[in-house]
Amino acid sequence: MTQETLQQQQQQQVLTVRGVNLTVEGGRQILHNVHLTAKSGSMLAVMGPSGSGKTSLMNLICGRRPPSSTMDGEILLNNRKVTSRMRKSFGYVTQEDVFFSQLTLKQTLWFFSQVKLPSSMTAKDKEKRVNEVVELLQLTKCLDTKIGGMSDQGLSGGEKKRANIACELLRNPKVLLLDEPTSGLDSSLALKLMEILGRWVVEQSSIVVTSIHQPSSQTFHEFHELLLLADGQIAYSGRRELMVEYFEGIGVPFHKHWNAADFMLEVVKESSQHKAHILENGRQFAERAKQEQQQLASASASQVHLNLSYQADAGSRQNGLAGLDEGSVRIRFTSPDFSPQAAAAKLQDDSEGVHLVHEVSWWTQFLALSYRGFLVSREAILSVQVLVQTAFVAFIVSVLWFQVAKTENNIADFISAIFFLTSYVTFAPFFEAIMTFYADLAIVRHERKSGMYRIGAYYLAKMVVEIPLLLVVPIFIIAPAYWCVGFADFGAFAAFLVVITLNSLASQGIGIVFSLLSTNPRTNMTFAFIYMIFCFLTGGFFTKSIPFWFDWAKYLSYIRYCYHFGLIIILERTDDFRCGEPSLYAVCNRNSTAGNSTAPLTIPGSVILELQPDTILPVWANIIVTVCMFFAFRLLGYVILRFCRKV
Ligand SMILES: Nc1ncnc2c1ncn2[C@@H]1O[C@H](COP(=O)(O)OP(=O)(O)OP(=O)(O)O)[C@@H](O)[C@H]1O
Hints:
Shape: elongated
Strand order of the largest sheet: 6-7-8-3-9-10
Number of helices: 22
Oligomer: single chain
Radius of gyration: 34 Å
Strand content: 5-15%
Largest sheet: 6 strands, mixed
Number of strands: 14
Structural class: alpha/beta
Bound molecules: adenosine-5'-triphosphate
Distance between the termini: 49 Å
């Protein structure tokens, strides 16, 4: 055997699905004894009518099983059970194109290149790889186009599909699975896409398995192997060009004027008289396939042994380093006492020794997620709509409370201005977080299914980049409103601004926790709304006669702490209020009845504070509670995300 032949054999990858059964919750069996063998350099099409189990099979190969389902059978790569670690090196293009719609294609591909390509690659090499893939998939002209979504126009359906494939091709996966990559494309685009993949699979010696619904005749001819499913069972499995012969062989005649792909689908439709007969033959085929695969498995095991012996003999042993390159499977033996037998055993048993995954450091993930998070959050938190709304609120507050005269009559107005600003600034990020975080999670969940990054890196990046963005709205409202109302001096302004922005950040953290309460966004919104109303009503702003047994509830109102801080800091540093005539304040009446004409007829802020119906906690206590809320809710959000939602 020449070294070249040997290397080819070593590079040959074989993906095997052996006797797979899948039963979902309720006992319904979706897949029955399915077998599949796909080899590198070839494209295998999984076909079948709608509901025949194509997506379920692709999902299983990628380790995505429906919750509460049971599966038996085996999924192997080069005769070794595919582990979750090995799956990370697979590429999977799902039916849905799940992207952040606000990013351009270039930004999206940059992000994927950072989290999918190994940290050891230089930035230049990553950029080069992105350009190669962009060129391959003919996406150059739309690099600066936004991905787009339901409401904002961006990439076309075909471009989005190719973008989805581009993200997976970046690292040249040895196994690429595509679920209906041609859905929504016209037949010429579908053909073009399959031709591109056809060239790629040969060049890279990869395995492509793609489910496809109703390919045109030309697209159908791009595939080397076919697996036809009907009701989750095999109806045909084998070379594409042998399909017609097979069906004719089992007595199902092919009409010459038919497109072969249509014929295949037609013969297994519900109404077909041939269906039972075809499935019976399919079952026999499955049994034969099982035996053949088992024979192949034992043959390959001895081949592995042979390859190792060969490499060891070839001289590597002397320098204490022998490398077996079996496609992307690379094992390093650093001991001078290298033994091929031990190595073969290791290959069979220990997937930990196999470096199938490009490791990307936590730090690289964090940086890439931070930059993407910044781009995405900037659009959400500082959108034109938000800025217009902020400008409007700042304007209306400034006009309505403009330089409120410091008289007894205006004390309620003065306090209500503090209350309004506090509640508005904390209210907005709370609901904003609920609406946007849930939408983000759908994308994060999708990306994390292929193990792209760690949840901790995502969460911390989100927190870090959003904090500066979240400061903008409070500053743009408080800065003009504070001086227009004429609250107090600069010291009070600075302190109020710091605590109100801290409270607004805490409020976003609470919003994040609410967005994670359940998997139903509507339920989360209902809980959030209930809590917000609870905060307003129990905070002591509207009713002063809370029953004594319910008095504790006011401490759960997170708005209360910032509001009380504002009251103390502003009222203690503002000018005194002129007494009304008659006055409700004892301090005014005492001065006038004493006939002390030199005594000022004013009410100091401290007196107003003392007369507040609610217990006012000291400044330090309000600050401590606000700071604790800031950290506690963010931590709670992480714990729920990591351990309860398991995103
Ligand atoms: N988690 C699940 N619980 C219950 N039934 C399921 C589940 N997942 C899939 N099914 C059912 O299994 C069958 C196969 O579904 P699957 O999505 O794999 O079909 P498909 O061949 O990909 O269909 P299509 O071509 O329409 O995408 C369908 O009847 C579907 O309703």
